[in-house]
Design brief:
The protein is an alpha+beta fold. Helix content is 16%, strand content 45%. Strands 6-5-4-3-2-1-13-12-11-10-9-8-7 form a 13-stranded antiparallel sheet, with helices on one face. A hairpin with a 7-residue loop joins strand 3 and strand 4. Helix 1 crosses helix 2. It is globular, with a radius of gyration of 20 Å. The relative contact order is 0.17.
């Protein structure tokens, strides 16, 4: 039965003529499997509590010229609410103290606030603002939001090899109308549900960017975190690499460290 179902899915994907009810059933199964994979990936990452880490952001233009920024990242898990994230820039001097605060929400768009020390002002970013470049990088503010399962609809596409692993490839479509993307295609390995690649398609359906993820390390004997993320923009030829290091888990963080007031205290 599984072999027949898989065959029907391939036939429907290729656009061959079958009874409408057959393809509809196959689409439902692909959606259910895509959701199952996304949920398994999210479950595999939950339970670490909190952590702080360092990050070096390397911006490369289409001619290969590089510039670097150093920042600290703080993340707090909350069971009844979405996660809290804080990105605080340390270097170079002209961006020191700049910060981005994110309150992730399960069933509505995430809340983001941006602090610029030169003006000592906290600015709330609306959904349209989140489509802009994050500090001149090829990551948008939207890309910095945690990819909660409820933020997308899903469709399983196929299995295929990826390096030494076998990966499942799924499509996810943002449910928020203000998203900068029409869809994303995600590669998860079937060993630990780690993300290895994401393709981003703009609102016209064109392939805009690709994120590649590498150098996973395991922490607390359970959780896998990547040390390297590279976002490549296929339109402007630029790329941004995020190099992670110095992870510290279960540190002294609470909700008071992730408020608009706390942004002005961050140094």
């Amino acid at each position: 039965m599984k072999k027949l179902t898989g065959t029907l899915f391939v036939i429907c994907s290729l656009g061959m003529v079958l009874a409408p009810s057959v393809c509809a059933e196959s689409d439902e199964e692909a959606a259910a499997k895509g959701l199952e994979i996304a949920q398994a990936a999210q479950d595999a990452k939950e339970g670490f509590g909190n952590y702080i880490a360092k990050q070096v952001m390397v911006l490369k233009d289409r001619k290969g010229r590089e510039s670097k920024r150093e920042l600290r990242v703080q993340i707090l898990e909350l069971e009844e609410q979405g996660d809290r994230l804080l990105f605080l820039f340390d270097e170079p001097r002209d961006v020191r103290g700049t910060a981005l605060l994110i309150h992730s929400n399960e069933n509505q768009p995430d809340d983001q606030w941006f602090f610029l020390p030169a003006t000592n002002r906290v600015t709330r970013l609306n959904s349209s603002g989140q489509s802009k470049s994050f500090m001149g990088s090829e990551f948008s503010y939207e890309d910095m939001n945690p990819p909660e399962v409820s933020k997308f609809t899903y469709k399983y596409l196929r299995d295929e090899p990826c390096d030494e692993f076998n990966c499942t490839v799924s499509e996810r479509v943002p449910v928020t109308k203000g998203s900068n993307y029409s869809r994303q295609v995600v590669w998860y390995d079937d060993e630990a549900y780690r993300v290895w690649k994401i393709e981003y398609y703009d609102r016209r359906g064109d392939h805009l960017k690709t994120l590649t993820v590498n150098d996973y390390e395991q922490y607390l004997d359970e959780y896998w975190f990547a040390q390297t993320m590279v976002m490549t923009n296929h339109v402007n030829g630029k790329s941004t690499t995020l190099n992670w290091s110095d992870f510290e888990f279960q540190v002294d963080l609470d909700e008071d460290d992730f408020t608009q007031t706390s942004l002005r205290r961050t140094r």
